[in-house]
Amino acid sequence: MRPEDAAAALQWLAEMGADEIIGEEPVDRFAAAIAPPAPAMKPAAPVQVARPPIAASDDAASLAAACTSLDDIVATLQRFDACPLKKTATNLCFSDGNPAAHVMIVGEAPGRDEDIQGKPFVGRSGQLLDRMLAAIGLSRHAEEPEKSVFITNTIFWRPPGNRDPTESETMMCLPFVLRAIELQRPRVVLGVGKISSQRLLSTADGILKLRGKWREISAGSLTVPFLPTLHPAYLLRRPIEKRLAWRDLLSLRQALDAH
Ligand code: URA
Description:
This protein has a single domain (about 55-255), classed as Uracil-DNA glycosylase-like domain (Uracil-DNA Glycosylase, subunit E, 3-Layer(aba) Sandwich). It is α/β, with parallel strands linked by helices. It contains 12 helices and 6 strands. It starts with a helix and ends with a helix. The chain has helices at about 5-15, 30-35, 55-65, 70-80, 85-90, 110-115, 125-135, 165-185, 195-200, 205-210, 230-235, 240-259, and strands at about 95, 105, 150-155, 190, 215-220, 220-230. Bound molecules: uracil.
């Protein structure tokens, strides 16, 4: 392959989201595609395959239930190996912000910057999220609980190439998200984007249908108001929709002021 063709292929891969190497050795997929077919074999007896990932969420549920603080959740996640994303991620990315905050934000999944820093929403989407929050007087850096936010995600390890997390991956992390809500005891939860809103509301409805409508979610012994809104990454792609996000933010401000 000519160097300029290799450079073009690499650039294409990066544009498709494959921005890191996850195997030590390159695999020649073209060679694999033209390899002679394997000789016909006698069909094997059916094998009972153990049901994998979702079953692991039973484990997650009991591990999450045993956590007695947010730090405990972090320590448990450090030794929780059932989520396959952990193998390809650089860092656990659990939370940022003020654990005493009145508002908890649940996003989607860490991206490249979050994976490197081990904190949610520190890349471009996070910068927009910070500006959105600042517009209604909230900040992840504020010390006063009424002015601050606590930020976490639906999933705590970066999916390779920023693909959407699968249902089994999110279901596996859900007990930890719910336990974090129960322990952090926010006055309201803001669900940022489709995936967190669908998981926390147990619905398949799209975010354009869900956004802006207050619901309640249960996290263990706690019932808490929940507002779904648009994800900042979506707003970066479709700035015209910022007017909808602004309505949601005003609704959040109003709910906080009414308390
Ligand atoms: N998008 C998210 O939903 N979460 C992050 O942490 C970063 C980007």
